[in-house]
Amino acid sequence: MCIIGSSGHYGYALEELSEDFEIAAIAPGVLNEDISHLLFKLERLSLKPRVYENYSEMLKVEKPDVVVINTHFYMNGRILQEVLQMGIHAFVEKPIATNLKDLERIQELYLLLKKEVRFAAMFGLRYKAWFLTAKHIVESGAIGDIRLMNAQKSYKLGERPAFFRKRETFGGTLAWVGIHAIDWIHWISNKRFVSVCALHSRMANRNHAELEVTGACLFELEQEVIATVSVDYLRPEGVETHDDDRLRIVGTKGVLEVTEGRVKLIDEDGTRFVPLTEGGRIFKDFLNCVLGKNECMVSEQQSIYATYIALKAMEAADNHTTIRF
Does the pTM of the predicted model rise above 0.85? Predict the structure, then answer.
């Protein structure tokens, strides 16, 4: 395995170190990308991969089976295209592209190479015990038919890297943060999106130039299901956790609420917290898929679809309009 860049969630791979793979080499994904913190973490794990200055040279020399792609976000989609054409499996930061042109080319490659070369977006939050529990409860029919979904992503802003300050290199907050909530909605409801209207704002972004710190989407899903997504970078710095993820699902028989790592079920029998199912590991799941042991819970087509919806939500917010799919 090789790692390109260190600007995303490469930690998923470091959590799953095993005899099944070796981290052979690493390289930045863009000129002057700082990969020192990745090197530091590898050294603490007693790992000493080869270090390249150019990722293309690394790929040609090392010929890896799997590559982890998580450089400055605007390059992830371009590098994904490159590695797919080389026949290399890819675990790639989301969104897997920051523009529709790159995404369309990825879709073309997927259709051409389907099942021969595998890739998955880093939707690791699906594997958290509370989201898996919510998925299972919905599938059991306990809350009936879904009619309304509300999803929230709230982060601390801190001091973000320079590439976050330009839309061209960052891609936008709805695409980077909101895509998780978009993925939850699609994955748990098993329904496709019909339309979106959205807003976002850079006000109060603490000198982060073009970075949006608030945003919201209103979606229509199939069968007139309504879903909302809110994102913000205004979580107070003093609170214990970096993020505040929430999901509320309203059905014809009950309501599910996911918050603070717990799942609450409200139905005719009252209100109660539900025992959590066992959580999973996304990179282990992806590696097992590459090894032919199972299908990854995050499929290529889901990775493409959630990215497409997120990019169109960005477009709707930029133009203050409603987009139908």
Answer: yes
